[in-house]
Amino acid sequence: MPLHWPEKVLIREVGPRDGLQNEAAFVPTAVKVQLLAALAGAGVKAIEATSFVHPRAVPQLRDAEAVMEGLDRLFMRGNDGVKSPAAPVISALTGNMRGLERAVRAGVKEVVAVVSASEAHNRANMHMSVEASLRQVREMGAAAAAGGVRLRGAVATAFGCPYQGDIAPGLVAGVVEGMLQAGVDEITLADTAGLGNPRQVYDLVTLLASCYPRVTWALHFHDNRGLALANCVTGLQAGVRILEGSVAGLGGCPFIPGAAGNAATEDLVYMLHRMGIDTGIDLDALAGCAGLLEEHLGRKICRNRV
Amino acid sequence: MPLHWPEKVLIREVGPRDGLQNEAAFVPTAVKVQLLAALAGAGVKAIEATSFVHPRAVPQLRDAEAVMEGLDRLFMRGNDGVKSPAAPVISALTGNMRGLERAVRAGVKEVVAVVSASEAHNRANMHMSVEASLRQVREMGAAAAAGGVRLRGAVATAFGCPYQGDIAPGLVAGVVEGMLQAGVDEITLADTAGLGNPRQVYDLVTLLASCYPRVTWALHFHDNRGLALANCVTGLQAGVRILEGSVAGLGGCPFIPGAAGNAATEDLVYMLHRMGIDTGIDLDALAGCAGLLEEHLGRKICRNRV
Questions:
Q1: Closest chain A residue to B260 measured between Cα atoms?
Q2: N or C: which end of chain A has fewer CB within 10 A?
Q3: Which chain A residue lies closest to B272 (C-alpha atoms)?
Q4: Interface test with A, best of B274, B277, B301 (most A CBs within 10 A)
Q5: What does the pLDDT read at residue B131?
Q6: B32: Cβ–Cβ under 8 A, 6 or more apart, which residues?
Q7: Phi and psi of B301, rounded to 5°?
Q8: Confidence class of residue A255 from pLDDT cuts 50, 70 and 90?
Q9: SS3 (DSSP) at B58
Q10: Quick one: average pLDDT of A167-185?
Q11: Backbone angles phi and psi of B91, in degrees to 5
């Protein structure tokens, strides 16, 4: 029986947010904007560009407003205020109502709210219970709708938690339901700690898709044990058509030696193209983005490959 | 529709052969035997231990006879000449009749003959045409049968060739047929240049398995673009139950910076165990084997992971 594969997949580049927030040093706004421009130039259609969170919590992304301003200049054609048709969908993470308000003022049209499926991880990351987080997301959903902004959701530690261990599908479903009540229609299942495996990915996505058939699903893997691409493959088999990656595999944690970042976008795109699946991305140009980043950061990030 | 996964998979460790042959320096016989003993101790049930090829072609494995002698001492219980029940199946690669005769004299019970699906690669690697190689394999098959030795086959560049590009399934089938005529009943499809992708793996294995239903298939991936584990996953879906790996991901070519080795056995075993698939291997002990190798080689080989 032949396997069925999609004709195309949307790649969402999250390196500028999930990657750069984990760099020890602050990357200057101009470099960030240069990277975002290069990614858009390579044909990336969706980019998570920054985070509107407290500058003390994530100082690396304290220039969120300035980054958005830079992007506006990039993608506005001349002075007529019309967005370039080549402009990717730019989204930004927001941690709470205050972040959402900042994002709306900065002109962001798509924001992402993250809640962890793991109570322990949510308390560590968001300093509140899962229930309190979901209450906040409902508020954010109402404000986003009022402001004409799209709110996406992301479930952190959906495939396992470093504090709590295995995560029962019911915990993920609980967060999904809370997000649906907030008006969210697209949810990213994030393997925050790189603990997922291909069998689990297929089973969890299949279960959730059958329970919540109207949700658009996206997947986000960290490559801690080299399983990110394998997890993407069974995610595709389960029907997912949006995959998140980080250029050069950026990310991880500078305080954990050897911690891995996201699936490297260039590996993901290489694999999909070799499988005959279109992404609209120019792989050589994408590799150039990884090179740009390495040059700025002054170290090799990409895995050694021929 | 749930995906079906096997309950167990046989892992064949090929690092002592495919890995060490690519090391610039000769690894002393005692270290090789120590590694083989540690692998067996970790529960690895099948090991490709060495190559019987011309010492000028692969000087790193010029001690094949001595390695086999060391293994005999390891796995013989006392002086009664009875093999330990914990002994793994030890196989060795043989390049031609002379290699086969050396292997038989050294007491090897399972030998492997390799023929490339790519004419260009076979000429570069074996210095003869595919047809000539297959003629030789038939001779080897007859000699192996006469000597009470099992002959396995391996098809190199089955998923793509660095010289010839894409490899049509018919070219792989041609080698498979030649090997069947030589009495081979198990064939490894090898992605020698790390060019395969998950869709292709599923399609090629499915096609070959339907054409040659009596063959036992094994898969062997190099990780040049990080796709080795993803390729293993769709290989399992296509029904393959034998996967080859190299401890610490050893292998590649010391003359190509960044060239990748085989799928790292410890990553493969980690993934399978997380998927609920049994391998009989103790993952911690296997990680110890990788450490032993790194200690001896004096460099870090394993990918950076938490």
A1: A305
A2: N
A3: A197
A4: B274
A5: 98
A6: B16, B20, B50, B63, B67, B70
A7: -110, -40
A8: very low
A9: coil
A10: 98
A11: -125, 165
Find the CB nearest B256 among A258, A276, A306. A306
Closest A-chain CA to B261? A305
Distance of CA A185 to the CA centre of its chain: 16
pLDDT tens digits along B138-184: 999 999 999 999 999 999 999 999 899 999 999 999 999 999 999 99
* Chain B residue numbers touching A202 (CB-CB < 8 A): 3
- CB within 8 A of B213, min separation 6: which ones? none
Phi, psi angles (nearest 5°) of residue A211 = -75, -35
A253 is a catalytic site residue: yes
**CA B137/CA B37 separation, integer angstroms:** 30
Residues in A touching B274 (Cβ below 8 Å)? 197, 199-200, 227
- Find the range with the poorest average confidence among A99-103, B235-239, B262-266: B262-266
> CA A155 → CA A134, A137, A172, distances in Å?
11, 12, 7
Q: Tell me the CA distances in angstroms from B30 to B48, B66, B72, B103, B142, one per residue in order.
A: 17, 9, 13, 19, 33
Question: Going by C-beta distance under 8 Å and a sequence separation of 6 or more, which residues neighbour residue B170?
Answer: none
What SS3 state is found at B212? coil
Q: What domains sit in chain B, N to C, each tagged with a CATH number?
A: 10-297 (3.20.20.70)
Closest CA to B112 of B122, B100, B124: B100
Q: Answer whether residue A50 shows pLDDT above 80.
A: yes
Q: What is the dihedral of CA B69, B285, A197, A251, to 10 degrees?
A: -110
List pLDDT tens digits, range A54-66.
999 999 999 999 9
Which residues of chain B make contact with A237, given a CB cutoff of 8 A? 3
Q: Tell me: the pLDDT tens digits for B275-300?
A: 999 999 999 999 999 989 888 887 76
Which of B206, B226, B233 faces A233 most closely, judged by CB atoms?
B233
Q: What is the dihedral of CA B122, B124, B126, B132, to 10 degrees?
A: 50
Q: Are B281 and A204 in contact (CB under 8 A)?
A: no
Closest in B203, B226, B257 to A303, CB measured: B226
Hunting for tokens 């969890």 — which residue is that?
A204
**Single-letter residue type at B184:** V
Q: Which residues contact A133 (CB under 8 A, 6 or more apart)?
A: A115, A116, A122, A126
